[in-house]
Amino acid sequence: MQTTLATKELTLGYGEDIILDDLNIEIPKGEITVFIGGNGCGKSTLLRSMARLLRPKEGGVILDGEDIAKTATKEVAKKLAILPQGPVTPEGLTVFELVKQGRHPYRKLLKQWSKEDDEAVMSALKATNMLDFQNRSVDSLSGGQRQRAWIAMTLAQETDTILLDEPTTYLDMTHQIEVLDLLFELNERDGRTVVMVLHDLNLACRYAHHIVAIQNKQVYAQGRPEHIINCNLVHDVFEMKCDVTYDPMFGTPMCIPHGKGRCIIDTNSMAN
């Protein structure tokens, strides 16, 4: 049975500041959900609270029908894994040693490393195409390879649900697509639920089954990209004028922002 994850009247903040207020979100099982919104709107805060890394001010996060705050830490770690933005690897740590850390929720006092642990690590390395890099130090890898190593660590946890905070940040276009394709394949092949924060709206529309748009401390809209992404949403959520058309390759919504730039077409003739 797949893990269920939702928020119920969730309010989050730091000190006296309210970041998100009264959120009711249900994450679709076995699909890819992407949180979108302007800088500082609370996307990463929401993701952290779903991993029980931030205590709500009100309401709660519901994991398999129970308040996640009342669930034992190791039990949470067996159901969902989180990859924060820009994780730091200890110097000299190999890929294999990093991925092994994903087995921590299954470790017990005096319990030896088991065949099941080894199989989980090998399976994670294989799924992320990192088998050939397992003896390399993580800090010697390219940005895309390093991100795949961290994703392998989350896979070694063998959870139904993976949370990722801006997994494509600081990556060039090639490595962005490499990482997102990997997450897409994990969802397609294994039915894993993937929840992530993305800044690129067009990539969010291409890869997500479900989008949650955050604006002014609340959910502005949530649903399938083709149902909710339009000019009004982009204007209200990102304060940007745009045209929304369709990606010619995938048929998903594609945002073309207005603004200044070098124009090589005759806009007057187009108007006529």
From TrEMBL:
Q: How would you describe this protein's topology in the membrane?
A: Peripheral membrane protein
Compartment annotation: Cell membrane
Keyword hit for Metal-binding: no
- Which GO molecular function annotation, any one, does this entry have? ATP hydrolysis activity
Instruction: Extract the InterPro entries matched here.
Output: AAA+_ATPase, ABC_transporter-like_ATP-bd, ABC_transporter-like_CS, P-loop_NTPase, Siderophore_ABC-ATPase
Entry's Gene3D superfamilies?
Answer: P-loop containing nucleotide triphosphate hydrolases
Q: Which GO terms describe its biological process?
A: iron ion transport
Q: Which CDD domains match?
A: ABC_Iron-Siderophores_B12_Hemin
Question: What protein name is recorded for this chain?
Answer: ABC transporter ATP-binding protein
Where's the ABC transporter domain?
A: 5-241
